[in-house]
Structure formats: C-alpha cells, structure tokens
Amino acid sequence: MIERPGAGPLRRLVVLRHAKSARPGDVTDHERPLAPRGRRDAPAAGRALAEADCLPGLALCSTAVRARRTWELAAAQWGTPPPVRYDPRLYAAGVPELLAVVRETPADVETLLLVGHNPGLEDLVLTLADDGLDDTLDRVREKFPTSAVAVLAWRGADWRDLAPGAALLTSVIVPRG
Q1: Across-strand partners of 84?
Q2: What number is the average pLDDT over the span 17-39?
Q3: Model confidence over 34-88: pLDDT tens digits?
Q4: Using an 8 Å Cβ cutoff, are 100 and 89 in contact?
Q5: What are the phi and psi torsion angles at 52 (to 5°)?
C-alpha cells in the first residue's frame, strides 16, 4: 500500500458492483436475479479479492437480489467470510447516501467491502479518489462494469472521517469467471 498523509490507520474501502443481472419482465428491479454470466463472475470477484489480499473485516450490501447473490457467491470463495450487513439504503443510492452508510462503520474495521449499484458506486469512487495509481481513475471514468472492484486507500481514525478527495484509488479489477 502507498502511504497517504493523514492521521490514523491505513483503511481500505473495497467497492464491488454487483455481477451481471438478468432482466426478466415479470420481476421488479429490486428482485432481478443474476444472469448466467453474473453467476460465473461473482465467484471470480471473490477469488480476485483473496488473491489481492483484500478481504474485508465487514461487508455492507444492498438488499437487491442481484447484490445479495453477488456477495454470497464472492464470499463463498473465502475460508471465513466476514460479517455482512444488508442495508436497504444502498439500493439505488447516490454518493451522499453511500457515504452516510459507510461512515457508520465501526472504527475497528480497517477494510470495508461495499456491494451495490451504478451509477452510485462509480460516482462514489470518483468522488473519494483524489488520485489513482497508473490508469485506475481513467478506467473508472470510462466504465465501471458489472463485477468491477475498486480499492480505495486512505488514513483516518474513524470511518466518519472519510471525505471527498481523501483516498487513493490503488486498483481496479474486472474479474470474469
């Protein structure tokens, strides 16, 4: 990890966009399931996080079916998944709502996983990152596709301290199964 100025421990916010979903005509948007590709990509996202040594201490997940299933399939790739909190505020959330939920994270959590939806997640990454390694920011600006993972690093005594421009975008991964 890159050392960032600021007080407190190095923290990581891992942002995971839900895997590819199906669009059956007889279900509401909230109840949409994963498509076959999504069922392949979600475990790949879990493996990618494990390989990057980026396993969370806590996961926050949208209540939408496609987000919950993405979490379940990704977390199944780890020996012992962390606790998860399903939060209805993460469904269709914009940056202010996403930040409000993230800022409620207990201070003892150093790596937090956020599983949700676009455009909110892409906007959150671009709002929080004041810089990025290599071409990470350009890649997110271009597209933050389904199953994409963005890792933001920052220093802070508490998650309440996370503010726009406070983080470094260290990696962007788009795993495919």
Answers
A1: 59
A2: 96
A3: 999 999 999 999 999 999 999 999 999 999 999 999 999 999 999 999 999 999 9
A4: yes
A5: -85, 5
User: Which of 109, 111, 105 is CA-nearest to residue 50?
Assistant: 111
What's the rounded Cα separation, in Å, for the pair 137 and 140? 5
Determine the Cα–Cα distance for residues 66 and 28; give it in Å rounded to an integer. 12
Check: CB of residue 128 under 8 Å from CB of residue 164: yes
Read off the tokens for 25: 């005509």
DSSP one-letter string for 53-111: T---SEEEE-SSHHHHHHHHHHHTTSSSPPPEEE-GGGTT--HHHHHHHHTTS-TT-SE
- Rounded Cα distance between 175 and 132, Å, is 19
Report how far residue 57's alpha carbon sits from residue 79's, in angstroms, rounded to the nearest whole number.
13
Structure tokens at 119: 């455009």
Contacts of 86 (CB under 8 A, 6+ apart): 61, 62, 63, 68
What residue type is assigned to position 143 of the chain? K
